[in-house]
Amino acid sequence: MRKIIVCTFLTLDGVMQAPGGPDEDAESGFEHGGWQKPVDDDEVGTAIAGWYENADAMLLGRKTYDIFASYWPTADPGNPFTRRMNSMHKYVASRTLTSVEWQNSTLLEGDVADAVRELKASDGGDINVVGSGDLAQTLMRHGLVDEFRLTIHPVIIGTGKRLFAGGTIPTALEPVNVSTTKGGTVVGVYRPNGKPSYDSY
Description:
Layout: E1 4-11, H1 42-51, E2 55-61, H2 62-71, H3 80-87, E3 89-93, E4 105-107, H4 112-121, E5 126-130, H5 133-141, E6 147-153, E7 173-180, E8 186-192
Parallel strand pairs: 1-5, 1-6, 2-3, 2-5, 3-4
Antiparallel strand pairs: 6-8, 7-8
């Protein structure tokens, strides 16, 4: 069974929107695009590279697919990640796209949850869900996420799309590996572990 792994960059207050640049995603008037680089460090890059060691595919929502497909095909070939991103298989979940042109991309058909269940049951390595907040929410609602890999950066934005937005199903998490980089970013790997328990002091 392949694992579905949500890989996301977050601010300390949980915002995942437009970490990569001012023009990445200005939806709803978001003015803080590009918040990640000023609080990034080499250890974060090393951790992210490790997230892809056992993955041979990505699962993307339409918005993230559009961002990636406009960047990676012409990205610096000297960047070792460029070849990896272009060569990996990309599965795209969209209600509006009718075709996908980025190499090694496949548009999922029918119900997204059903299509992802089929992917999980197929042969292959891990499948990373990168960005794609709406898609991640759908996968969480259907119990299809096997692991969260998060970088939580030392900055507060206050507005923007959040990975764990309103309506997220309460879930207990098992910490697999949690560390802090020299720049203060928490790199955490967590697995869903049933429902939360409750108690009092």
